[in-house]
Design a protein that fits this description.
This protein is mainly α and about 80 residues long.
């Protein structure tokens, strides 16, 4: 049974980072770059598509429900 992982969990197979935050920083940089030059509407559309793509990749409805509840708590 899977549960939602909320601790930092970024990485690339075969890559060893000196600092635990480095892969997370790399993802954040890629995310910001993906949004570059988009207006607010297109940026929101990109976020929605990204959420759906990643949810499909995860696939486990229990984990997805945990993620939805955790995200809602922070709003």
């Amino acid at each position: 049974m899977s549960t939602l992982i909320t601790r930092p969990n970024f990485g690339e197979p075969g890559r060893r980072d000196r600092h635990a935050f480095s892969p997370g920083d790399d993802f954040y940089e890629a995310l910001i770059e993906t949004h570059r030059d988009l207006d607010d509407e297109r940026s929101q559309m990109l976020n929605a598509r990204l959420v759906l793509l990643l949810a499909n990749h995860i696939g486990d409805l229990r984990v997805l429900r945990e993620a939805l509840a955790a995200a809602r708590q922070g709003v």
